[in-house]
Amino acid sequence: IFSAHFGQLAIIFLWISGMHFHGAYFSNYSAWLTDPIGIKQSSQVVWPIVGQEILNADVGGNFQGIQTTSGWFQMWRAEGITSEVELYWIAIGGLIMSAVMLFAGWFHYHKAAPKLE
Questions:
Q1: What is the SS3 assignment for 86?
Q2: How many Cβ atoms sit within 10 Å of the Cβ of residue 78?
Q3: Residue 64 near residue 56 (C-beta atoms within 8 A)
Q4: Integer-rounded Cα radius of gyration of the chain
Q5: Which residues of the chain have pLDDT under 50?
Q6: How far apart are CA 30 and CA 62, in angstroms?
Q7: DSSP one-letter string for 72-84
Q8: Is 31 left (phi over 0), alpha (psi -120 to 50) or beta?
Q9: pLDDT in tens, 80-95
């Protein structure tokens, strides 16, 4: 049972790491921090492939993209994250924790599990 729980925690840490990396690399989070009322939050830009760039809108702060309403920006601000560098470090920490959880799942399944012999 422990190995399954650790495996699920590894997937959750990987997902959280990906969300923080995505927010650090693709979003306008630092611009949004300067003016949260005037600048809309956006974490995605549609590339100009076959006319799909029409989905990009001006969200303020010299940034074009799809406006998001997920609440990640507000959560990061409430946590005290003030730059993309901190988001990168959290993403790296999430990857490390995911690897630790994978190791813990392996350990509990292969080494620490009671033997039925």
A1: helix
A2: 9
A3: yes
A4: 19
A5: none
A6: 12
A7: HHHHHHHHT--SH
A8: alpha
A9: 999 999 999 999 999 9
CA distance 97 to 14: 8
Q: Is the pTM of this model over 0.85?
A: no
CA 103-11-92 angle, to 5 degrees, is 75
> What region does 111 belong to: left with phi over 0, alpha with psi -120 to 50, or beta?
alpha
Which structure tokens are listed for 77? 């601000």
- Residue 96 amino acid letter: I
CB atoms within 10 A of CB 62: 9
Q: Are strands 57-58 and 42-44 parallel, antiparallel or unpaired?
A: unpaired
Domain ranges of the chain: 2-111
Within 10 Å of residue 54's Cβ, how many Cβ atoms? 8
Q: Distance (Å, rounded) from C-alpha 77 to C-alpha 1?
A: 36
